[in-house]
């Protein structure tokens, strides 16, 4: 029996398609778009569009360049003006001079003049007192009388007067004989001398004075007046008129001992502080007198007081250096200073001339050319640094000078003195 076929047997069955959700399909299409995998369009691609610039980009670049240039110019100007300075290094002429000389120094001397400077300090301490009393006391002290007038002895009678530079009169109570002078082999006169005690002509504190020279008024108008004179050995003390406190000796002595050590330090510091620029003194020439003052009554006790009077010859450093240079044969005529005065040994001796000092120096003096720092800066201000040689010619003390200008491109030196720094270096080859 013939098997009948149906239409399904003739037409082959179509392939079945997987069933996918519409949402999934759309998501896949979106992902493809994101990855740039969209199917090509049938439309031809458009040509690229070329946009014409409006000049704004170029203007911005130019603006930045101009700003940078301006910043550089301003920075350059700031550095040139506000940091402009000069460092000046100078080497001064130096002379090493062996010295072992004695100099005759006098107040009005030509080669080596000096001035006598007096410095005073007073210290007090309050102590218990046992009472008070009214007193009138005359000052007294010891002097040395010199005879440079004659080889024969000279007699001074009782009550011979001695006058201080301030016109105060002191007297001796007894007649004295002053030995005659002697002569050394080189003709130098050594005055004869004797120590005596003198007493103030009147009571009072004004007669309490330090170390001074005295003249003898009774010899005025004679040849002896110039060559017979006196000098203090001790201060004049004890003069007083008024109510004086009474203090036990033990308490007073203890107070005085405490004051003495303190006043010595104080008076020496005051001497140094009194020196001006260009002045020099020597510690060995300082004469200090400590004068006990009358004990005064104060509330609750007594005031014990010491007065120190320092007398010191003060020299011009320039003139002392010139005297040393002259004795040492240094042929340099401009001003000099002494760099190492503390290293020189100093000795003073009485001179046969009243008021003079015999100053003996020994050692190796280091003399340095003197110059004015302020004057040098004033002459350098605003100069072209290539022309500083003209300035240097006016300073013979300067052996060498080097100038560094900051910033380096500035051709002129600063206009302000405050922008200069001066440094002095030691000469490697002292003369």
Task: Describe the fold and architecture.
The chain is built from eight helices and 23 strands. It has 431 residues and is of the alpha+beta class. It has a domain of 106 residues. The longest helix is centred in the N-terminal third of the chain and has 27 residues.
Which key phrases capture this entry?
431 residues; elongated; 6-stranded antiparallel beta sheet; single chain; 4-stranded antiparallel beta sheet; alpha+beta
Strand and helix layout:
Layout: H1 7-10, H2 22-34, H3 56-82, E1 85-92, E2 94-105, E3 114-127, E4 131-137, E5 140-147, E6 154-156, E7 161-163, E8 169-171, E9 176-178, E10 182-183, E11 189-190, E12 192-200, E13 213-214, H4 224-227, E14 228-232, E15 240-246, H5 249-273, E16 279-280, E17 287-298, E18 301-316, H6 317-327, E19 336-338, E20 345-350, E21 357-369, H7 373-380, H8 388-392, E22 398-406, E23 420-425
Parallel strand pairs: 1-23
Antiparallel strand pairs: 1-22, 2-21, 3-18, 4-15, 5-12, 5-14, 6-9, 7-8, 8-12, 10-11, 13-14, 16-18, 17-18, 19-21, 20-21
Short account of what is shown:
This protein is an alpha+beta fold and 431 residues long.
Which strand-content bin applies to the residues?
Answer: 35-45%
Major beta sheet, strand line-up: 7-8-12-5-14-13
How much is the average pLDDT? 83
What is the helix tally? 8
Estimated radius of gyration: 50 Å
Ends distance: 156 Å
- Structural class label: alpha+beta
Number of strands: 23
Largest beta-sheet characterization: 6 strands, antiparallel
Helix share bin: 10-25%
What overall geometry do the principal axes of the alpha carbons give? elongated
Low-confidence stretches: 6-11, 15-28
